[in-house]
């Protein structure tokens, strides 16, 4: 079964540094998402991306965050100047534009630790 | 008020028990409803979609009451492998419109031998 893949599985970064999280969505999917989950808290939506532009973003997704689809396969989340509170699991997801019993497929996440 | 609220857990049950999870959502514009399952520090995985008529998948039964904005999940004959956190999820979009998923905080289930 096709999968969403994310790299790295764990990223440790000094506060203030830039970090790029990478995702390869399922190849025929057209909608891409980033979510995050702070330890012990709920999964929170960050941003959705369709047709090479952001379609929706949450309040969390401020100017420090950006997303890009640099080629036909990768979908990246960049955090420009990381803060301690950015420490979380970051999940990428993708979906098709057809009716499906699985609306969004999730990758297994990147654990981001800010020191 | 949280957009999706679930029973606070954890639920500790013996194998073979029947357990029910409740969820309410606040936004009447919500269109699609799901139960996801999340194992410790893993990604959410779709357990089942929830339809207005109610639906069943083996030991799992989901119900939706749009009038009271209430969703439920019933697990019968619980197994050790059912131990996980169960996430109630809604979206304001239909399947094919790429809407964001809105998660509840989850209810942890621990099934004991």
Could you please describe the fold and organization of this structure?
The complex is a heterodimer of chains A (115) and B (113). Chain A is mostly beta strands. Chain A contains no helices and eleven strands. Chain A starts with a strand and ends with a strand. In chain B, the strands form two sheets. In chain B, strands 2, 4, 5, 9, 10 and 11 form a six-stranded mixed beta sheet that branches. In chain B, a hairpin with a 2-residue loop joins strand 6 and strand 7 (60-65). Chain A binds chain B through residues 30-31, 33, 35, 41-45, 48, 50, 55-56, 58, 89, 91, 93, 95-104, 106-109, 111, and chain B through 32, 34, 38, 41-46, 49, 87, 91, 95-96, 98-106.
Major sheet details of chain A: 7 strands, mixed
Strand content of chain B: over 45%
- Structural class call of chain A reads mainly beta
Give the largest chain-chain interface (CB within 8 Å): A-B, 32 and 23 residues
Mind summarizing the main beta sheet of chain B?
6 strands, mixed
- Structure class of chain B: mainly beta
Helix content of chain B: under 10%
Unreliable residue stretches of chain A: none
Give the distance, in angstroms, between the N- and C-terminal Cα atoms of chain B. 37 Å
Overall pLDDT of chain A, averaged? 91
Query: What spatial form of chain B do the alpha-carbon principal axes imply?
Result: globular
According to DSSP, the number of beta strands of chain A is 11
Helix tally of chain B equals 0
Label the overall shape of chain A.
globular
Query: What percentage of amino acids of chain A are in beta strands?
Result: over 45%
**H-E order of chain B:** EEEEEEEEEEE
Mean pLDDT of chain B: 92
Proportion in helices of chain A: under 10%
Which stretches of chain B are low in confidence, meaning pLDDT under 50 for 5 or more residues running?
none
Work out the radius of gyration of chain A.
13 Å
Summarize the structure.
The complex is a heterodimer of chains A (115) and B (113). Chain A has 115 residues and is mainly β.
């Amino acid at each position: 079964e096709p999968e969403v893949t994310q790299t790295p599985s764990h990223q440790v970064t000094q506060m203030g540094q830039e970090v790029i999280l990478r995702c390869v969505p399922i190849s025929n999917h057209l909608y891409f998402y980033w979510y995050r989950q702070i330890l012990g808290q709920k999964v929170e939506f960050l941003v959705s991306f369709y047709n090479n532009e952001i379609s929706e973003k949450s309040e969390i997704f401020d100017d420090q965050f950006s997303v890009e689809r640099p080629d036909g396969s990768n979908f990246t989340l960049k955090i420009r100047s990381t803060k301690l509170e950015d420490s979380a699991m970051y999940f990428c997801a993708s979906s098709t534009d057809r009716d499906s019993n699985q609306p969004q497929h999730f990758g297994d996440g990147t654990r981001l630790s800010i020191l | 008020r949280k957009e999706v609220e679930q029973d606070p857990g954890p639920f500790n049950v013996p194998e073979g028990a029947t357990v029910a999870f409740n969820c309410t959502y606040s936004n009447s514009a919500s269109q699609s409803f799901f139960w996801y399952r999340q194992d410790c520090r893993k990604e959410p995985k779709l357990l089942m979609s929830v339809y207005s008529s109610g639906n069943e998948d083996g030991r799992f039964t989901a119900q939706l009451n749009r009038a009271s904005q209430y969703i439920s999940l019933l697990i019968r004959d619980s197994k050790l492998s059912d131990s996980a956190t169960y996430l109630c999820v809604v979206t304001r979009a239909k399947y094919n419109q790429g809407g964001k998923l809105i998660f509840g905080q989850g209810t942890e289930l621990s099934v004991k031998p």
